[in-house]
Amino acid sequence: CAFVRATGMKVLVCPEDASHIEVGRTSIVEKLPKDVRDKTVWRQTFWLTDEAVSVYERAFALLSLDMHSPIMALGRGVPAIVCRFQEQTSKGFMWRDIGLASWLFDLDQEKDGGRITQALLDIAGDPITARGKAKEALALVKKRQRETMAILRAELGLGPEATVRDLQ
Predict the structure, then answer these.
(1) 88: which of 66, 69, 145, 165 is 20 to 30 A away, CA to CA?
(2) Rounded to whole angstroms, how far apart are CA atoms 150 and 71?
(3) Cα-flanking dihedrals φ and ψ of residue 105, to 5°?
């Protein structure tokens, strides 16, 4: 609500898996005040990855309770806030590992509630810095991937020019 009211932008409530469709409607969209609901689009059907990525790369920012969408958004340089909870695995902590701890929140911690809103408003207040932060995190991911693959190539006795086909 604070984001819509501060920016006037629309928001999309969409599923990361098919079980989220009705939850998005009943737990989010239907509970919004009219002024915010008028700026909210609810995705009523599940979508495939290519369509999701296409939307995410045009998004101002992303807020998610799952990891796949934030990873896809970050891969396009889009700021992505991750809200995790106890029942999830430790994979949500990767945001901290790539320098995005200020965009990682624990929904089981009451203190994080207001901080989520503030993080989103901070992104809205300085989108250039937020996009730069997303791109820095992506650059770190790519650097670590290159380093990891170099170790794998060395362990397999392959040269630096080796490709996936060489592993087959």
Answers:
(1) 145
(2) 23
(3) -130, 150
What is 74-133 written as a DSSP string? HTTT--EEEEE-TTS-GGGGHHHHTT-GGGEEETT-TTHHHHHHHHHHHHHH-HHHHHHH
Tally: H helices and E strands in the chain: 9, 5
Output the CA torsion 148→153→157→160 (10° steps): -120
pTM here?
0.86
The answer to whether 43 and 21 are in contact (CB under 8 A) is yes
Give the phi and the psi of residue 104 in degrees, each rounded to 5: -120, 125
Residue with tokens 């700026």: 39
Which residues, in sequence order, are CB contacts of 101 under 8 Å at separation 6+? 95
Question: Taking the mean position of all CA atoms in its chain, how far away is CA 86?
Answer: 18
Do residues 101 and 89 touch, judged by C-beta distance below 8 A?
no
Kindly report the number of other CB atoms within 10 A of residue 129's CB atom: 12
pLDDT tens for each residue of 70-86: 999 999 999 999 998 87
